[in-house]
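Minutes, structural biology subgroup

Action item carried over from last meeting: produce the structure token record for dna, SC166 (Aspergillus oryzae). EB confirmed the sequence was re-checked against the source entry. Recorded below for completeness.
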Amino acid sequence: MLSIQSTQSHSSSNGVQYELHECALWYAAIGDKRDEVTIRSSLRNGLIGFTHRRIACAHIFWWVLRKPRILLLERALCDTRPGYWEPPGGAAEDQDETPGDALKREVGEETGLQLSQVTHTLPTQTWTRSKGREDYNWVGLPCIIKVSELETFESRGSSQRASQPVLKWEDIIRLNPEEHQNFAWATEEEVRCDKYKMFGNHKETALKAFAAVTENCSV
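Output recorded by EB:
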């Protein structure tokens, strides 16, 4: 049976099967007691819908001198919680059939980067947020992903000719100014000591992501 406790890091080379597994994790987080096979079959055949508002969160790592750094975005002054830092991500929209769809769209909109692979999922999270007299139930699925630009960046950095300009992340990452005003590649130590002020459970989840990539250096 699926449960929140069972939604540990998971990876798969089969993209479609992996997407269905992610969806099953969302259902498990809200207490759905059906087994994963039944949930995946129902999702595949369009027999069940979803009432919670869904969040997909992407943790992107870049290895520098054998140490991982995580991509964080600083919220814009014109947005809520200005000046706070967070990983790329956001709420799933109607056209997002799977968490992978939401991740790909949000990462592209917020950073201009192209998702190439979801390598791990972290434990799902649920919470309730009040707005006026209404309570909204949310379920979040944090993921560790790879982006295609990372390979380009690393290959350019190791094989550049002296006549070529140095490739910088500022040349690759394109922020949406209505949402974010800056980005940083933070070390685990910087996250732990709150160099980048975060809200909610972003810090806790980022540290879990660091633990996952440190354990599996192939991420």
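Discussion: Residues 70 and 125 are 20 Å apart (CA to CA).
Next step: EB to file the record with the rest of the batch.
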